[in-house]
Design a protein that fits this description.
Structural class: mainly beta
Largest sheet: 8 strands, parallel
Strand order of the largest sheet: 1-4-7-10-13-16-19-22
Radius of gyration: 20 Å
Order of helices and strands: EEEEEEEEEEEEEEEEEEEEEEEEH
Helix content: under 10%
Number of strands: 24
Number of domains: 1
Distance between the termini: 72 Å
């Protein structure tokens, strides 16, 4: 099947930003930001931010932030140094940065994450390694969970009477 979209071949080196209204496949190196309205598949080195509908990293080295509306997948041979903001995130590789997800975060058995995770749900498989904090708000903002622990003032001041 023929790939539909922009292709950066393995022998190419791009110094500058890339914008595409479709999909992007990067097999070469990019020193600049990538913005695409479709899906981005990265198989080499990116020094810059990536923004796409979904992002798949396979054998990639990325130094920069990642932002998607949909899925971000960090393959087991990939390293990311930067924050990830996405709908859903699957980490099989290494991430040094924070994850902010509106959906699910899955840390596979080969994952290494050094950073904080804020998500609706987090699943960590046996063998996954992580250093940082985890906030699971079940679709709510973490701050909105504080209201679950408010005790009405009159209950506190009634001397324990029922």
């Amino acid at each position: 099947m023929e790939y539909q979209g922009l292709v950066i071949t393995p022998s190419m080196v791009i110094n500058g930003d890339i914008r595409s209204s479709g999909n992007v496949l990067v097999e070469g190196k990019v020193f600049g930001n990538i913005t695409c309205e479709g899906d981005a598949t990265i198989k080499n080195v990116i020094v810059g931010d990536i923004k796409a509908n979904s992002i798949t990293l396979n054998g990639s080295k990325v130094k920069g932030s990642i932002k998607t509306k949909g899925m971000t997948s960090i393959g087991d041979n990939s390293i990311v140094v930067g924050n990830v903001k996405a709908g859903d995130v699957v980490v099989c590789g290494k991430l040094q940065g924070n994850i902010n997800s509106k959906g699910n975060v899955s840390l596979e058995d080969t994952a290494l994450v050094v950073g904080d995770i804020n998500s609706s749900t987090v699943v960590s498989k046996s063998g996954a390694r992580m250093r940082g904090s985890v906030s699971v708000a079940g679709g709510n903002s973490p701050e909105s969970l504080d209201s679950e622990f408010k005790i009405p003032e009159e209950k506190l001041n009634d001397g324990g009477k029922q």
